[in-house]
């Protein structure tokens, strides 16, 4: 193709449109679990003629929606109405323009009848001539069968454009799909002088902060340690955000009164003694009573509830949580660590540094490290295994 007198390399454009797919997919952050985030763009003669994203599990896929009825929506219903249905499902948005166009999808189009009909058939029926796929779908019922079906129908298919970005978009979903287990991220805050901070970090009270954005991405958040009342109510401040289920691992009975008034749903895990002492049954707090507080049954409970991503929010005293963290590492259930370094020099008495965790940290070798400045904080992320 020639544009502005220059011969353009098509693959450069491919990356651009897949990045747009990822941007669209992110509109539904927090709402698609146990499904992935997926975006789709239809391009004809160098112009975008259709855009869509998967809004929620059980609802139509990013590529296609056939009926005239409004899908059953989610807490962002008004937002969907405002955008009009046609901007949510790409082939529907494109209409007849999809013929001979290129479809870009961040995840391989599905080829199965699930809660929705196969997207491959919709693309074939719409007569697109080419499909560019960000990454192959790890779901065993799809796993390259979508690509094969499109190729059989004579459509040119390119796979693996901006693959790393697409994988990162759905890192929790991919892990859950491949292992059957939830993706667990450990989070904590540090001062500039390396002290462990008993606080949530940037964005607790205002939208756009790293913590507020992080919260909406997870299905559940595990809070542990001797929580004082002021720390008991983390909610995402993003407009219309998903609020993760809150799991409180109870270490003392004193923390419960504040939980009943919270906006997001809470479940308490306690041992028999604490449950009795805090009189959980009478306070109508949903509680799971264990013989001994232990991460394995908590994560198993999460898995059975269909929770795919868990944020282990490390606050309170390090010693309270050391046991829990040790378990995540020993039992190989931890996938990611997110550390926020706040611009404070902490000189408080009895401040604890991460040295207590030395024994654990030594055996960790984080992979794929990334860092970014979020407002005034430095956020560092790393994985326990190469991704
Ligand atoms: C796509 N486009 O937008 C999504 C896909 O239960 P269902 O019918 O929603 O199917 C869920 C599976 O379909 C999910 O596990 C994943 O493999 C794929 N998701 N595929 O072509 C989409 N969300
Ligand atoms: Zn589909």
From TrEMBL:
Record GO terms (molecular function): diaminohydroxyphosphoribosylaminopyrimidine deaminase activity
Boundaries of every CMP/dCMP-type deaminase domain copy: 12-158
Superkingdom of this protein's organism: Eukaryota
Protein's recorded name: CMP/dCMP-type deaminase domain-containing protein
Parent-protein start and end of this portion: 70 to 456 of 456
């Amino acid at each position: 193709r020639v544009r502005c007198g220059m011969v353009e390399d098509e693959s450069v454009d491919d990356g651009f449109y897949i990045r747009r797919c990822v941007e669209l997919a992110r509109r539904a952050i927090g709402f698609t679990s146990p499904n992935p985030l997926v975006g789709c763009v239809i391009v004809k003669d160098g112009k975008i003629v259709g855009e869509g994203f998967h809004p929620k599990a059980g609802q139509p896929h990013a590529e296609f929606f056939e009926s005239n009825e409004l899908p059953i929506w989610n807490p962002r219903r008004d937002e969907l109405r405002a955008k009009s249905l046609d901007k949510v499902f790409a082939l529907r948005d494109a209409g007849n323009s999809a013929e001979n166009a290129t479809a870009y999808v961040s995840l391989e189009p599905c080829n199965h009848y699930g809660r929705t009909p196969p997207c491959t058939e919709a693309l074939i029926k719409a007569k697109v001539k080419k499909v560019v796929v960000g990454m192959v779908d790890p779901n065993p019922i799809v796993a390259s069968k979508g690509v094969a079906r499109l190729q059989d129908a004579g459509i040119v298919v390119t796979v693996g454009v901006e693959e790393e970005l697409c994988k990162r978009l759905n890192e929790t979903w991919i892990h859950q799909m491949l292992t059957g287990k939830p993706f667990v991220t450990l989070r904590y805050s540090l001062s500039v002088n390396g002290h462990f901070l008993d606080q949530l970090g940037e964005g607790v009270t205002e939208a756009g902060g790293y913590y507020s954005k992080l919260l909406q991405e997870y299905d559940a958040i595990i809070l542990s340690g001797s929580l004082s009342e002021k720390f008991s109510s983390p909610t995402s401040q993003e407009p219309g955000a998903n609020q993760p289920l809150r799991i409180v691992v109870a270490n003392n009975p004193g923390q419960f009164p504040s939980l009943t008034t919270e906006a997001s749903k809470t479940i308490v895990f306690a041992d028999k003694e604490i449950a009795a002492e805090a009189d959980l049954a009478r306070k109508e707090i949903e509680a799971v009573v264990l013989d001994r507080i232990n991460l394995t049954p908590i994560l198993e409970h999460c898995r059975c509830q269909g929770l795919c991503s868990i944020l282990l929010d490390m606050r309170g005293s390090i010693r309270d949580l050391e046991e829990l963290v040790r378990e995540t590492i020993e039992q190989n259930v931890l996938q990611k660590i997110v550390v926020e370094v706040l611009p404070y020099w902490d000189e408080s008495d009895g401040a604890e540094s991460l040295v207590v965790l030395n024994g654990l940290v030594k055996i960790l070798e984080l992979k794929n490290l990334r860092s970014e400045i979020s407002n005034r904080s430095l956020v560092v992320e790393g994985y326990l295994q190469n991704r």
